[in-house]
Design goal:
Layout lengths: L12 E7 L5 E3 L5 E11 L3 E6 L9 E3 L2 E4 L8 E8 L6 E9 L1 E10 L15 E10 L4 E7 L2 E3 L5 E5 L8 E6 L8 E9 L7 E7 L8
Parallel strand pairs: 2-8
Antiparallel strand pairs: 1-3, 3-6, 4-7, 5-6, 7-8, 9-10, 10-14, 11-12, 11-15, 13-14, 15-16
């Protein structure tokens, strides 16, 4: 009688995955975004799912295996998206990326001296400072330009254009008019744009005169 030795062996491994996308992904509103996630290890083969920080995936999103497609993306759909792989061996694997949707939002301006609150009209011979602030996404793409009566304005000895340190006052540009003259009266326009393009510029008009009184 022969003796038989039975050897039962099995190989299991926890999942590992890779995202074939950049982080972050900066896109324009209305653009279709595809996120691709692939298995790079795991036995049995892991199952891939997608989750987002917005509690649930957008209603219009399409999941096909490890690919998540977001058609005509909106600002509300920006956020962190994560691919999760699970095969009940060890801990699930998770890889995430952030989708940033370009936007130019609310803008405001203020004048120093402030004729609206101090009852102090703009005066000849004084320095006048116009500050313009715009909320932008992503903030590092924000650029400003200035116009006077519709024509491009460049920084000079009497017209000093600066951009405030983002850590102190994000999204802010200043136009200092030194020694105000009658010829400086007019409409000044602060124009905000994003380097990536794809969305309309945002502009604010400020009227400077001896009786400055209105934002157009």
């Amino acid at each position: 009688m022969k003796n038989h030795t039975w050897c039962l062996s099995s190989f299991v491994a926890s999942p590992s995955i890779k995202l074939l996308v950049e982080d972050p992904i900066v896109v324009n509103p209305g653009q279709t975004v595809s996120l691709v996630c692939i298995n790079t290890g795991g036995e049995p083969p892991p199952i891939l799912t997608w989750v987002s920080t917005n509690d649930s995936l957008p209603q219009r999103s399409v999941v096909n295996g490890g690919t998540l497609t977001l058609p005509s993306i909106t600002s509300d759909e920006a956020g962190i998206y994560s691919c999760v792989a699970s095969n009940n061996v060890g801990n699930p694997a998770k890889k995430s990326t952030t989708i940033v949707v370009r936007a130019l939002n609310r803008g405001r301006f203020w004048i120093t001296p402030d004729p609206y609150h101090n009852d102090d009209n703009i005066q000849i011979g004084r320095e006048v400072k116009i500050s313009c602030q715009v909320e932008a996404t992503p903030p590092e793409e924000l650029t400003f330009s200035w116009l006077k009566n519709g024509r491009a304005l460049r920084s000079s000895e009497r017209m000093v254009i600066t951009q405030t340190d983002p850590d102190i006052s994000p999204g802010t540009t200043n136009l200092d008019i030194i020694d105000l003259k009658f010829t400086d009266f007019g409409t000044y326009t602060c124009v905000a744009a994003l380097k990536g393009g794809g969305i309309p510029d945002f502009s604010i008009d400020v009227n400077i005169s001896s009786t400055t009184d209105k934002l157009r």
